[in-house]
Design brief:
418 residues, alpha+beta, UDP-n-acetylglucosamine1-carboxyvinyl-transferase, Chain, four-stranded mixed β-sheet, 14 helices, binds shikimate-3-phosphate
């Protein structure tokens, strides 16, 4: 599908965000091993979460409407076919942790993009826990009981941390993960809400195997990473004001708000309470007051990794040189996001140089409508759509725009409505 985006006048109104992708995956997987039925509202219906649901159904889990019927810690049954994870790294890596601890073997496959992404990062710790695990193709499980380990993750990755903690639920003794840089902590919060013992201290997370997990009851908040596109659009399109209610504002996900504020964006946030241990709030953006360039280093990059494509668009309009470094992980996302964004924004006239681990972007530059490519990557498609809103000349045509369905079904309809 080609999406055509034209220069926008001011964007006004309220945006209903899709449910948080990270929390949605976890509710399904953790709910599947709970003792009892979990009830969830606001689950993301995007393709990635559908992949998780399909894998769990293949393992005998009933997921119907807003309920997940938990099988207990030892109730999953072997699937009769390889588990297809589609485009979803979170599905493949977290399922590897869950299934690495089972007595039966599972094979996990994915689409062309996912099959290229690194899985040794979960195979290695699982093997150290005594699991049978190999890649490629990804095969896990079918060995005796695992033992807890202390694992220092070489890459900042919430998926790796979560895979090890999930395996740790089934291991003998405690399992500890030590991270180089803190990453999103939805797994820790949710396991705690389900009654598991999870301790955190000085960058280390420790889980002990629980006797059982209680089912969940929650309304999933809106996805901060989905909000990132509207935050940038509401800042860059003159005269705009956009409000987003019920967004997940877990401190491990709000670094992007601070980054945009540093760049001069007029952003306000109001607390709306908590849902299953996850803070919720509303956010508003109303233009950019005093724009200035900002730099991102490795520490910040890990905290805003999914928002960096949107940030690259913002940086094209900031006066001076913005440098984003320490973000080599972008090279192994759904596409090589460093290359995909450099290609798309260059085609639109931006002054952007791809670095090994980020970009150097000089601004402000006048963007021009052009034909650009998503590379099958949802966040690239949405970021380039935002660039299209401020492009002059002709429209911006985005090739392969259907991939927004991965994390944001209805994105283009909402854009049109605004
Ligand atoms: C996620 C972790 C991040 C993020 C992804 C979702 C998660 O990946 O990019 O969209 O839900 O744990 P990494 O763990 O590879 O950094």
């Amino acid at each position: 599908m080609i999406a055509t985006v034209r220069r926008a006048r001011d964007l006004q109104g309220e945006v209903r965000l899709p449910g948080d992708k990270s929390i949605s995956h976890r509710v399904l997987m953790f709910g599947a091993i709970a003792s009892g039925t979990s009830r969830v509202r606001g689950l993301l219906v995007g393709a990635d979460v559908r992949s998780t649901a399909r894998c769990l159904r293949d393992l005998g889990v009933e997921i119907e409407g807003d309920s997940v019927v938990g099988k207990g810690l030892h109730g999953l049954r072997p699937a009769s076919r390889p588990l297809y994870c589609g485009n979803s790294g979170t599905t493949m890596r977290l399922m590897a942790g869950l299934l690495g601890a089972q007595e039966f073997e599972s094979i996990l496959t994915g689409d062309e993009s996912l099959e290229r992404r690194p899985m040794d990062r979960v195979v290695e710790p699982l093997t150290r826990m005594g699991a049978k695990a190999s890649w490629p193709p990804l095969r896990v499980g079918g060995q005796g009981p695992l033992h807890g380990i202390e694992y220092v993750t070489p890459v900042a990755s919430a998926q790796v941390k979560s895979a090890v903690l999930l395996a740790g639920l089934f291991a003998e003794g405690e399992t500890t993960v030590i991270e180089p840089v803190p990453t999103r902590d939805h797994t820790e919060r949710m396991l705690r809400a389900m009654g598991a013992q999870v301790r955190t201290a000085d960058g280390a997370v420790t889980v002990a195997p629980p006797a059982r997990l209680s089912p969940l009851e929650l309304e999933i908040p809106g996805d901060m990473s989905a909000a990132s596109f509207w935050l940038v659009a509401g800042g860059l399109v003159p005269g705009s004001r956009l409000r987003m209610p019920h967004v997940g504002v877990n401190p491990s996900r709000t670094a992007f708000l601070h980054l945009l504020k540093e760049a001069g964006f007029a952003i306000t946030m109001r607390s709306e309470g908590e849902a299953a241990g996850e803070p919720v709030g509303s956010i508003e953006v109303a233009g950019v007051a005093r724009p200035r360039p900002v730099s991102v280093d490795g520490q910040t990059a890990a905290a805003v990794i999914d928002e960096l494509p949107a940030f690259a668009v913002a940086a094209t309009q900031l006066p001076g040189r913005s440098r984003i470094t320490g973000a080599a992980e972008l090279r192994v996302k759904e596409s090589d996001r460093i290359a995909s964004m450099a290609e798309g924004l260059s085609a639109m006239g931006a002054d952007i140089t791809a670095l090994d681990d980020g970009w150097e972007i000089k601004g402000p530059t006048r963007l021009e409508g052009a034909r650009v490519r998503s590379h099958g990557d949802h966040r690239v498609a949405m970021a380039l759509a935002v660039a299209g809103l401020i492009a002059e000349g002709g429209p911006t045509d985005i090739d392969g725009a259907e991939c927004v369905d991965i994390s944001y079904p209805g994105f283009f309809d909402q854009l049109e409505a605004l």
